[in-house]
Structures are given as C-alpha cells and as structure tokens.
Amino acid sequence: MKTLRYRNIRDKVMESIIIISTVLVLLPLIIIIVHVVVHGISAINWEFFTEELGSPSRAIQGRPTGLVHTILGTVVVDFMALALAVPIGIGAGIMLSEYPDHVLNPTLRIMNDTLNGMPAILKGLFAFVLIVKPMGTFSGFAGAVALAFVMIPIIARTTESALMSIPWSLREAGLAIGLPRWRVVLSTVMPAAKTGLVTGILIGFARAAGEAAPLLFTSFGNNYLPNNWLGFIFEPVDTLPQRLYSLAISPYSEWHSMGWAAAIVLLLFVIVCFVGARLLTRKKFQTN
Description:
By secondary structure, the chain is mainly alpha-helical. The chain folds into two domains: 2-43; 47-287, MetI-like fold, CATH 1.10.3720.10. Helix content is 76%, strand content 0%. The protein is built from 13 helices and no strands. The chain has helices at residues 2-40, 56-60, 68-98, 105-117, 120-135, 140-164, 168-176, 181-192, 194-209, 213-216, 231-234, 240-248, 253-287. Helix 12 packs antiparallel against helix 13 (253-287). The termini are far apart. 34% of the residues are buried.
C-alpha cells in the first residue's frame, strides 16, 4: 500500500509539472494576443475592410481609411507563394526520403539546410536580383518568390520526416504488385503520410505569412488598390506584415492604431488558414 501511495503521489507531482510547463509555454502567446487585441480592436470597423489607406492627410483629417488593399494583397501574395513552394518543397522532400542513395542528395541536403538557416532578408535580396531587377519594377510576384524561398526548406524537411516515418514494408508491398517506384510514392506512401505533409505545409505557410523583411525588397508596398487584379501580381503591392511595420514606425497615432488592427487581421488570417486546412483535409481523408 505504501508503494502504491508513493506511486500515486509521484504521478500527481509529474502531472502537475506537465500542466505548469504547458501553461508557461502558452502564457506568452496569450499575453501577446490579449495585448494586440486590446490595442487594435478600436481601429477595426467597416471602413477598415473597405477603404484604402491613402495619404497621411486622410487619417489626420478624420477621413475614412482602411487596409482593404493590404488584406487583398496579402491573400494574393501568400497563396501565390504557397503554389510555388509546395511542389518544389514536396519534390525535394521525396528525393531526400525515397532516393537516399541518389548522387544529388548530399548537395540537396546541404543547400536545403543552408536555405533554411539563411536570414529572410537575404532571401528577399535574392528575389530582388532574380525578379525585380529584370522586370524593372517591384511586384507581388517578386514578393511571392521571396516568400516561397522561406517556405521551401521547411516543407522539404517536414516532408522528408513524414515520409521516413512510413514503414518500408508499405513500399515493398507496392513494388511487389508491379507498381513503378514513382507510383508507389504518390499512391501509397504520400497518402499514408498525409498528416505530416499537411502539417509541414501549414508550418511553412505560417512562417512566411509573418515575414516583412523579404517584402521590403520585392513587393515594396502600396497605399492604394491597383487598377485591376493583375496589378496585385505585376505591380507594387501591399501586405500585412510589411504594412504593420510601416504603420508602427510612422509618426501618426491614427496609423499606430491601424497597425495593431493589422496585427489582429494577420493573426486571424493565419488561424483561419490553419483551421480551414485541417478541416478540409480531415474531411477529405475521412471520406476516402
């Protein structure tokens, strides 16, 4: 009985330590969210989602201002970057996991690790030289390329880890019935690793969605809506992380409040994308 009582006490102590550790991890996030909401909720209104920012005189004169162009630009640039990064990142992860003896793998792994550890601002400079200089103008496409460089190494590494967790016996079963190697990977291994693949894509997307430094050299920013949807791709475009930074360092108190509101929208944007992707993929996989 004494041994059983001692084990119960030890179990309760360890459970309490785990709970306290979890609270300590979540506490900074909760403090940040509460601080952002308290300072930015007053600036969120209908005009915030329907009006352009315009010149500083609009806010000083009390005229309605908003960040509709910034929100739309963020959606276009981030999802364009996701479309560029996912095929390349997953392809690199498949190469690292499924073809470990390939001659290109050592070089690919070093380059992936280097790109992952490289500061985001250098990726923006690379996109500037690669896209902005030849085009002769800043653009949403250049910003998407810069953010894709942020996503690719994360997606590649998580894809490799997810695929490596699948038993080799599953691959051998596909090869045994005569399927080619690429078919086994696409039809058998990747569906089995779907949870890890989705998680890696979401982590890469969340990391890129909050980056402002690469966009300073690529999408540059704009206080107005473009004339048409192509303007979000081929013209300077505004994004929430970049606009949040510029509003925070501005000398106008009205713009400071809008900066906090932009942080709320950015936070909600990432949360909605996470929850939406989880729900859609879970429903699809359960149906299958």
